[in-house]
Structure formats: structure tokens, C-alpha cells
Design brief:
The complex is a heterodimer of chains A (251) and B (502). Chain A is of the alpha+beta class and 251 residues long. Helices cover 27% and strands 7% of the residues of chain A. In chain A, strand 5, helix 6 and strand 6 form a beta-alpha-beta unit. In chain B, helix 6 packs across helix 9. The chains are: A alpha+beta (251), B alpha/beta (502). The interface between A and B is large, with 46 and 44 residues.
Chain lengths: 251, 502
């Protein structure tokens, strides 16, 4: 019980104070309906309300500001329950992010840390559906998922190694004016583990992402980039900290 | 697309029905197997059903760490060792590598190679398998070992994010040569990028000993550019979907089993190849040019076929082939769907060195003209001296004609840039043997050459047939050869050729 209260305090503090002077650039994503790759039955589309999304993933520099204001998220102070031993792995100290990566997306961040950081800015993590909705836009279209060039570009980005070393905001913004959704890092979503896919992609129980069965409940069997993203989300846990996984916030 | 949805929908609605039927079938089958087993036990317990039950009960004693090897090598045979607890440590690495000369590709690998590390155990071994996903990797991976009896072959138990590791356990209960592969969605892409390998489960007492063992695995690759397009090539999803690969390769690279990497054996030795096919799409018609498989463990199982020319290896399947290397030669490993070999890279070489055995193969003994009108064999009526033709060719005319002749008559053995084929056909590029004696070169083209010669310090003992070319053609092709690839630019005249004719 004591432990639970402590945890609550850690999480709460962010909600009460919003002095964290982080001003990230944002863009409006107008709501609409769409059919996500997973999570709906019988091809029913779902409705997304308007939301405002950061135009780029949170950078090391921005995250540094966050941990300075909220020291419980410093590398040396963070609770193992909220972030495993790889948290901020490439930082050489509590206030020492890698110099050359200040404007690259912060990674080695757990879901708890990402969530807290967003909340301290008066924001939140996007839902998986919101994220997918924003990311299905090319520079010209709101939904470019049937566009082979759009898909090939994303696939090429996924195949490029160590893209987390690149600075944010250098590519072309999409239809909503948002950068780097697919180019630099995977991004946490608030409900990353909500689509209950198990590790097995072929057997025909309903929660499956291996081999053939991954195709059973998917809505678009040709959307390989979506398969890769959902498989990734399915492999992670909230306290993991991975080199290629960062986050951005929404309101 | 709509059709697919409907099919999927149907699958869903009839799933329960199917499940019920399956359970029913299973019950009937179980009963059947039990009856068979009972019968088998009464007569002779050496059936597969019998073995399986017994294998699951074998007690594993002690612990050992499995030796893992990169292709084309395999770990030491299990021999007579008892079943044990076998520790297997495998790392998944996403890395850039070479698909062909100048063609780069991002491979996803088990153990850093395509195919992945070879695992060798025996029936009854209890495997403790740890799969490590390197922190620099971008994607989650897992492993489905076809040798595992259990959920997804371990796929679910081993599903691991970058920077994490998972350990799972299973017992080897069926002997055979099994494929393992990544089964993470989209599974076809993970396999197309190189995530497959072989695990050998030897029977108790091991496979019969042989002199040489090698590990060869075929796979098909899909690149954005055409075959041979240079630079880093991304995966092409549409070509994979259409099952139209740009590369079909043994051991993940065009040069994996040729040049310095070719396999070797000596005459009189018995060679065993563990051959797998990762796919993801193509079925292989595996063939070794110049050999006959004495034995094939069909599909990597226990049934042995004998005297096989070509064996079919399904995607996600394997075969063990064995042959005695009788005569010295370059054996060529191919997929006998030959456009894959000729145009897409499915080619490997196994060089057999040693004493000739003319009782098995004597080579060419006589060459002649086939003349349907007269039954006699006689010399070719070539325009010997080139007489009657116009004045002598200029150097550039000789070069042009020489190049054409080279590319039709010479290049198959001496290769496109005169590099030859190691141990079989001597090089013409920077060749000391060629440059020190032009007369001898002319005679070689005119009359052929056999027996041992030394070229650039290496011995060759092979046969070159006489070339049926006239004086002008020989002068041209030799001038072309002498003027190319770092040779001494000797120009050969038609008269010089004519002088050497008897």
C-alpha cells in the first residue's frame, strides 16, 4: 500500500505542476474516420476527434529540461519499476545527454517516462489509433496507405539502421505539417499493448502476430509497414528502454 | 482484396466447426496411432511412433554449450555421446552485407550470417535456447525451430524486442535436419531478409561418419533494383508478393561458395551436404553437376533414397545428400531451375582434387567432324593460310575480331577478364606462361594442350581442345589476348600462325 501511494505521488506531481517551460511546435490534425490495421472487427471504421500533435519527436535537449525540472526522472533517480537498466543508456550522467544528439529524438525512454514527460507539459501520449491516423498521411494526402511510393519510402526508412542519430525536422512535413513520424524512431503510444497480439503469428487464436495468423485480423494484408509497427509495439513492455524508440505528445 | 476479406471472414465463422472436426479427427488419429503403436511394440518397436515416445523419456545428463558454426561449416558430430542439456546462445543481428559484387543489402540474421549459425544436437537433448536481440536492431524478432514440438516451434516463447533476450526450453524428440526461421509479422519479409538456418538432430549414436560435411542453404531475395544494380538495395515488397526474386542464392551471397570460398574435397572422400531452403517463396531442385547423390535423406527425414540426380527441397525444408567424390573435377552446386543458376546467382563450386580415375571418367578421347554424308572422321577443311582473302588486318580490326572470337570460343573457361578458374583453367591475364612464348601460344590454340603446366606459380593439369579457327581468326584472338589484361602486347601475324601448321 505504501508502495502504491509512493508511485501515485511520483505520477501525480507532474499533473499538478505545469511550470515545465517546454514549448514544442505543434500542428492540428483534423479528425475523421479511418480503418486501422488492427483493433476493429468486421472492417468497421473508427472515428478520431481533432487533436494537436507535436510536429517532431521529443529531443534529448527537451528531455534534459524535463529531468532538470522533475529530478525523479533523472537517470540515477528513476525507479526500476518505471524504467529498466537501459533508461537513458547513452547519457553519461544525469544532465549529460550525448552532445551530438541534442537535437535528435531522445530514446532509451520507457513508456512511464514518456507518459510523465508529456503530462508535465500538459499533454499526453497519442493513442495508437491517433498516431496511425496522423502517420497515414503523405505530404499531399490525408490517407496515402494505398500509395506505393509512400509505402516504399517508409519501408526504406525502417530498413535504414541507426536513424535515431539524426536530427528531427529535417525531412518533408506530411499533410498535417508533422515531421519524422516514420523516419527516425518508433514512438510510444498510450495504449501500445491494447491490440492484444501474442507472439505467435500463425495459430488461429485471435491475438496473434506471427507467420500466417498476423494476417487473420488485419485489415490490409499488403500494408507491410503497419505489420512491422504493430509487431514492434507488441514486443515491448512499459518499462523497456530501446535505442530506436522515442515519443512525441498530443493535446 | 475483397475476396481475401471474404475468405478470412469465412475462416472465422467456420473456425469453430473446423475446430470441432479437428478434435474429432485428432481423437480418431490418436486411437489409430495407439493401435499402431501397440502393434509395433508387439512386432518390432523400431517405428517412428515408438521412437518418439521413447525419445521424450530419454534422460538428459550433464550440461554442454552447443558449438555454433557459420556456413558453410558444421559443428562436430555428436558421435556416441549421451543426451545432455544443451545450451544454445543465439544473437539476432541486423547488418549491412554484400548480396553480390557491389550490391549491398540490409540482412536480418541469426548469429550474423545468412543462413544463421548451424545447430547440432541429438535425440533426447534438452535444449535451453536463449535468443538475444541486439540493442542496435530496429525490430522485434523470434525463432520458430521446426525441430520443436510445441506452440509455434518456440515462436511465441522467444518473441523479443531490441535490446532484450528470452530463454525457452524444449526437448529434441525427432531426428532429422530441420529449418529454423523468424516468425514475426510480416514473416515473409523477415525470411526474405535472411532469417533462417538449420538445426540437425542426430539419432542416438550419430549419423554414420563421413570425410567432409558442409552447410548450404538456398534463399530468394527481392531488391528494388534489377539483378546487378549497384549500391544499397532496399527490400521490394511487391516483387516478394509476386514471387519474382532478383537473386536466388546459396548462403546469402553470390560469391559465398565460389572463388576463394568454394568448398573442397579429395578424391575418394565421402561428402555430406546439409542442404536447406529458406525460401521464402521458391522450391529448390537441388543438383550437383558432375555427381550423383549416393544417398539422400529425403526432406531431411529418415527415409533414404539412393542414386538420385536432383532432389526437391521445399521452402522451409531440407535434405541431407551424400556422395563419394570419385574423380578430380569442379562440381557445380545448382538449383536446376536453371535461370536461377545462370541469371540469379544460385551457384556454388565444390572442387575435388586428387588422382584421376579413368575407369570412372576418361574425359574427351576423340574429337572429329560429324559428317552425315560420309561415315569417316577427318580433319576440318579450314581455310588454313587465309590465302585468297584480302590484305592483312590492322591492329584494331584484329582487336575487334579477336574480342568476338574470345567471347564465343574462349571465355567459358578462361572467363570474361582472362582470370580463368582456379585449379581448373589457367588465367590468361598477366600470364607468365602466355607472355614468355608466343609460338607456344599459337600451337596451343591450333592443337590444344593437355598435361601439367605451371602458370603464375600454380599447377594446372587439364585439357584444352584444339580450336577450329583459321589463321586470321587465331592471329586476331591471340593479338586481342596479348593486348588485354596486363599482357605484353605481342601482335600476332597470320603468317606466324600459318608457320606452325604442319
Amino acid at each position: 500500500m505504501k508502495q502504491a501511494i509512493k508511485i501515485l505521488t511520483v505520477l501525480m506531481c507532474c499533473i499538478t505542476q505545469q511550470t515545465f517551460a517546454q514549448v514544442a511546435e505543434t500542428a492540428l490534425v483534423k479528425g475523421g474516420t479511418f480503418v486501422p490495421q488492427y483493433g476493429v472487427s468486421e472492417e468497421k471504421s473508427i472515428r478520431i476527434a481533432d487533436f494537436v500533435m507535436d510536429t517532431a519527436p521529443v529531443t534529448h535537449a527537451q528531455y534534459l529540461q524535463f529531468v532538470q525540472e522533475y529530478p525523479q526522472w533523472k537517470k540515477s533517480k528513476v525507479r526500476r519499476l518505471f524504467a529498466d537498466g537501459s533508461y537513458l543508456k547513452n547519457w553519461s550522467g544525469d544532465s549529460l545527454p550525448p552532445k551530438e544528439l541534442l537535437h535528435a529524438p531522445v530514446t532509451h525512454i520507457s513508456w512511464y517516462a514518456a507518459k510523465a514527460c508529456c503530462e508535465c507539459m500538459g499533454k499526453r501520449l497519442p493513442t495508437t489509433n491517433e498516431w496511425e491516423y496522423a502517420a497515414m498521411a503523405s505530404d499531399k494526402k490525408r490517407d496515402a496507405r494505398k500509395d506505393s511510393l509512400y509505402n516504399a519510402n517508409i519501408m526504406a526508412a525502417y530498413e535504414t539502421r541507426q536513424t535515431y542519430l539524426k536530427n528531427t525536422g529535417n525531412g518533408t512535413p506530411n499533410y498535417w505539417g508533422i515531421y519524422d513520424l516514420n523516419e527516425l524512431v518508433w514512438e510510444w503510444t498510450s495504449d501500445f499493448n491494447a491490440v492484444m497480439l501474442s507472439g505467435e503469428n500463425r495459430d488461429n487464436n485471435d491475438k496473434n502476430l506471427f507467420c500466417g495468423a498476423g494476417s487473420l485480423n488485419a485489415t490490409d494484408l499488403m500494408n507491410y509497414t503497419a505489420f512491422l509497427r504493430y509487431a514492434f509495439r507488441n514486443s515491448i513492455k512499459a518499462n523497456y528502454n530501446i535505442a530506436s524508440l522515442g515519443f512525441r505528445c498530443v493535446k | 482484396m475483397r475476396l481475401l476479406f471474404n475468405i478470412l471472414k469465412n475462416i472465422k465463422t467456420t473456425k469453430n466447426k473446423i475446430l470441432k472436426t479437428m478434435i474429432h479427427i485428432k481423437k480418431v488419429m490418436t486411437a489409430g496411432v495407439m493401435v499402431m503403436f501397440a502393434l509395433a511394440c508387439n512386432q518390432n518397436s523400431n517405428t517412428s511412433a515408438g521412437n518418439k515416445t521413447v525419445a521424450a523419456d530419454i534422460v538428459a545428463s550433464g550440461t554442454m554449450t552447443a558449438e555454433l558454426t557459420s556456413p558453410p561449416f558444421v559443428p562436430k558430430p555428436v558421435g556416441k555421446r549421451a543426451a545432455t542439456k544443451l545450451i544454445v546462445d543465439m544473437e539476432v543481428v541486423e547488418k549491412e552485407g554484400e548480396l553480390a559484387d557491389g550490391v549491398r543489402y540490409v540482412f536480418w540474421t541469426f548469429g550474423g550470417t545468412v543462413p544463421g549459425s548451424f545447430i547440432r544436437g541429438r535425440v533426447g537433448d534438452e535444449v535451453e535456447f536463449t535468443l538475444k536481440n541486439h540493442p542496435d536492431n530496429k525490430l522485434p524478432h523470434n525463432i520458430d525451430l521446426h525441430s520443436v514440438t510445441g506452440q509455434g516451434g518456440g515462436a511465441e516463447a522467444s518473441f523479443v524486442a531490441p535490446g532484450q533476450q528470452k530463454t525457452f526450453k524444449f526437448k529434441l524428440i525427432n531426428p532429422g535436419l530441420y529449418v529454423y526461421h523468424c516468425a514475426t509479422a510480416p514473416v515473409g519479409m523477415h525470411i526474405a531478409n535472411g532469417m533462417y538456418g538449420l538445426i540437425l538432430v542426430e539419432p542416438e549414436g550419430g549419423l554414420p561418419p563421413v570425410d567432409r560435411e558442409y552447410y548450404v542453404m538456398q534463399g530468394d531475395f527481392y531488391t528494388k533494383g534489377k539483378h546487378g544494380d549497384q549500391g544499397l538495395q532496399p527490400f521490394d515488397m511487391q516483387k516478394a508478393y509476386d514471387e519474382q526474386p532478383d537473386y536466388v542464392l546459396f548462403n546469402g551471397s553470390k560469391g559465398a561458395l565460389t572463388g576463394d570460398n568454394k568448398l573442397t574435397a579429395k578424391t575418394g572422400e565421402t561428402v555430406r551436404l546439409f542442404v536447406g531452403n529458406g525460401g521464402p517463396n521458391l522450391v529448390s531442385s537441388f543438383h550437383v553437376i558432375g555427381e550423383i547423390f549416393d544417398r539422400v535423406y529425403m526432406e531431411g527425414g529418415s527415409a533414404v533414397n539412393k542414386n538420385v540426380q536432383t532432389t526437391l527441397i521445399p521452402a522451409g525444408g531440407s535434405a541431407i545428400v551424400e556422395f563419394k567424390a570419385e574423380v578430380p573435377s569442379n562440381l557445380i552446386l545448382v538449383d536446376h531451375s536453371l535461370f536461377r543458376t545462370f541469371n540469379k546467382g544460385a551457384l556454388g563450386i565444390l572442387t575435388v582434387e586428387g588422382e584421376k580415375n579413368i575407369r570412372v571418367f576418361e574425359g574427351e578421347v576423340l574429337e572429329g567432324i560429324y559428317n552425315p554424308e560420309g561415315a569417316t572422321i577427318h580433319e576440318v577443311p579450314v581455310a588454313g593460310n587465309g590465302a585468297g582473302s584480302a590484305k592483312a588486318l590492322s591492329h584494331s580490326e584484329k582487336m575487334e575480331m579477336g574480342k568476338r572470337i574470345y567471347n564465343t570460343s574462349c571465355f567459358a573457361c578462361h572467363q570474361a577478364s582472362g582470370e580463368g578458374i582456379a585449379n581448373a583453367f589457367p588465367p590468361l591475364a598477366k600470364s607468365d606462361y602466355l607472355n614468355e612464348n608466343a609460338e607456344r601460344a599459337i600451337k596451343t590454340v591450333l592443337y590444344g594442350l593437355s598435361g601439367e603446366i605451371t602458370v603464375n606459380g600454380k599447377k594446372y593439369n587439364s585439357q584444352m581442345p584444339a580450336q577450329r579457327l583459321n589463321d586470321r581468326e587465331i592471329a586476331s584472338v591471340l593479338t586481342y589476348i596479348y593486348s588485354s589484361w596486363g599482357n605484353n602486347k605481342t601482335e600476332i601475324a597470320e603468317e606466324q600462325v600459318n608457320k606452325q601448321r604442319k
